[in-house]
Request: fold
Amino acid sequence: MIKDLLEKIGLSETETEVYLSVLEQGKALPSRISKQTNIKRPTVYAAAEELVKKGILEKDLSGKSTYYIASSPNTIENYVEQEKRAVLDKMKAAKDIVGELETIHRSKRYSIPKIQFVDGEDVEQFLYKQGLVWSEKMNTSNETTWWGFQDHTFVEDKKNRDWIDWYWKNVPDSINLKLFTNDEGAEREIMSKKNTPRRYIKYWEGDPFTTSQWIVGDYVVNLVTNQKPYYLIQIHDKLLAENLRNLYKKLWEDNK
Reply:
């Protein structure tokens, strides 16, 4: 029973044997402890020295030989209290370490962009499927505006115009669109119908763009429709989307 209790407070099996031997003898030489416990003398000496460090044994150096003496039983309680304080200090240090490591981790952390490539006839299906995903993600965030540029060839395709009509009939009223586009007739025709009141277009005065680029929430969508087969590249990356969105916001503000 006593052995189990001593080991429970942190003494090793060897330390327990050595301590009980000294306690029984009152004052003991390492050789005597070794004989009584059947533990080799170097091991007895090492265990006894550990017990001295813990305050559980004392050394009598008054004579030619070194004797070990059991300290007062109260020292067991003192030892446990010291261990408790040591554990609390370690817990506090661990919290401080975690805080420091989290700071380092956050400074080095980056997300890996998710890139998806779609081409040919799959582009149309992708737009219908992903369009609802985009609107859902946007509606639950603070970024409810499409930004970017749209190549006029996108709206010259009737299938794409049908998708535009479908999209604006199926998305929440909170979503709107602000895009630049090349100054071509197809887009002006759509705007003249006025059936998409949340769709704002400004005409680009620089060199024509040859691809569409949409910033939709955390998504960056690049769509090529001036050649066949069409192809689309979707990049899901919050940081990239945020930077491009800020760029288009600035361009929109400066283009009166």
Notes: DSSP finds ten helices and ten strands in the chain. The chain has a mean pLDDT of 86. Residues 74-108 form the longest helix (35 residues).
